Task: structure prediction
Amino acid sequence: MVGATVLAGGCGAVTSEAERLTVRSSPTLGTPTAVPTDSPADSPTGTPTGTPTGTETGEGTGSPAPGDAQASLEGLKQAGQAAIAAVPGSKVISMESEENGRRWEVQVVGEDGTEHQLDVEGGKVVNGPTTEEDDADDKAKHRERLTAAKLDYAQAADKIVAAVPEGRITELNLDDEQDKTVWESDVITANGTKQEVAIDAATGEVTRKSGSTS
Result:
């Protein structure tokens, strides 16, 4: 009985020592913890999270990306609204994109036909309004065109973008063409093609459309 007890105790000691040796000599202990921490493939918050953030920051400066028709259209409308608010009772007759759409040069005409120029950036007026030195004939012409135009600048822009899908308007003007009052525009498509589009300011019908590689 005494021998059995010693043997059992010895086996326990051997087993315990073997376990300790196994723990000490294991070359891979701790490695699984280090591998997923350093591996980009196993990390859910590594490269995938950082990359889009950098891209969005570069494009989130208030200017629409080239070819982004919807963002450009919204920027145009915001610029027009800001200009009209700065000259109460006025209407937009001309808009031109600058700095890739970040800034718009806008001309509005007051109720008496006087033209005012403003620069709008990020939906806010940053320069102007500056009153143009129009004579009586110029003022009369402005009033005549605005009376004939049943579509305002925003409605005209919608018609133009519909005529040139994915197009980005860079210039929009109320003018006369072949005895009609028209909204004429320059439009840049995503592939860099320039389109010139004119629509009837009374009906919204496309009266002219031509394109060339810019």
